[in-house]
Structure of CTP synthase (glutamine hydrolyzing):
Amino acid sequence: MEAMRIALVGDRSPSVRSHTRIPLIMEALRERDGIALDPYWISTTDVSGLGGFDGIWIVPGSPYRDEAGAVRAARVAREHGIPFLGTCGGFQHMLLEYARNVCGLDVAHAENEPLARDLLLAPLACSLAGHEGRVLLEPGTRIAQIMGAATTVEAYFCSYGLNEDYKATLAAHGMVFSGHADDGAVRAAELPGHPFFLATLFQPELAGEDRRPHPVISAFAAAVRRHAARQPAPAL
C-alpha cells in the first residue's frame, strides 16, 4: 500500500484537540478504508514546496503564526488543482485567500487585525467554541452529496465567521456557499470545477469519540487517492 503525501498546514500544538485527533483519523483511514495517507505537518511559517503534495489540509489552530502562509497554502491548492480541505481556521483563511486573489478585495481577518477597516472574517455574535450546531446543506453541492442528507449536526471550536456583507461578492466570483446555520450564516463553502476544494467552519475531525473518519474527511482522502493516481473526479 503506497502512501500518499498530504500537507497538514498549521502550527502543531498538543493543546489543540483537533491536532491530537487527526493522526488517529489517519490510522483509521488506513485500517478501515485502505487509504494510506502520509501526513506532513507544515508550519505556516514555511509553506514552500506544497505543490508536490497529493492533498492540502489547513487544520484548525488559529491565530496561525503566519497568516500569509495559511493564505498561500489555500492558493496553491486552488491554482494547482490539489485536493483541499480547510476546517475552522482553514475555512476562514481559504475565504481570505479567495477574497484577496480572486475578488480583488483588500480585506482582513479580525483575529489578526481587529482594527482593520474592512473585515472579511468578523467575530461571531455568539462564540461557537465548544458547541454543536445544525448545518443545512444546499442540494446538489459536493458536501450534500458527501453527507447524503439535507442537514447535519457538527462540532465547532471557533469565534469568527464570514462577514455576510461580502457573501454576494464571493458568490459572484464562483464561490459556492454550501452549508448554512439555521440563521443563514455560512458554515461551508466549496469551488465547483476543482477536483476537491471544500472548507467548513465546523471541525469534522472532532466528530464522535472513536476514530471513525467523518464523511467529509473520507471524501477528502478519496480525492487525494484519485489525485495521486491522476484519476478524474466523479461527477456531482
